[in-house]
Model the fold of this input.
Amino acid sequence: MVLGATVVRAVLGRYADTGDDTVVGLNIGIDQPTKTADEAPAAEQVLQAKHIAMQLAGLVANARIEGVAPDHQAVPDMILAAFEADAEAYTQYYFAFEFVATLKQIGERIHLLAIPLIKVPGFEDTWTYLAEATRCWLFGHDTASVALCRAALELALREAIRRTPNTHPPLSGRDWDLNGLIRAARDEKILDNIAKNVAHDVRVAANDILHGNIPEHVATQTILDKTRSLVEHIVAATATKQP
Done:
């Protein structure tokens, strides 16, 4: 029994037990279906059992993601042994509910984003990294978002500088780290002084992330906005140049 073969009703809200194991109900703002006096206790027990199973499956899933202490190594296998064939289904139920819990945040954040004009040939890797940075931020993975913003900015600058007639960055070398790329982009007039300073803001924030200094949500949104704006500026400044 897997979620892919079930019907998912995303009607935003509480879990509603339908009595059919092939249906997961997510009723937003709607209470559970009314049960008769005879049905209510049994239905409540089934619902509680399913809830416990889902939470246990979530514990195992998070153990796979985050790891466990060495002396807890056997615990995930013990939990999975109790599920038999239903482990995959309850794991998918767990993540379905986790996803529903993030819908409000995604809905609030997505409308804060402008649509960047960046899909120009030659910048495909930049699109990919910037899209991943944006998705991470939408789902609340803010630190990953900032790290990917740094990568997107570096890729955009490398492609832009590669198109200039006077500068050709080698594949590696200290002079062509992000700091060097920002300096070269300013020299080539790809970035003006304001854009150069914004690029350094992204670089410093990402360096803090990579060294374990976790920024607050407001800072990560600002860094994402700055990166998206910078990439659009870089693409516009170099789109007419031949790759």
About this structure: The radius of gyration is 24 Å. The first helix runs from residue 39 to 66. The CA atoms of residues 147 and 210 lie 7 Å apart.
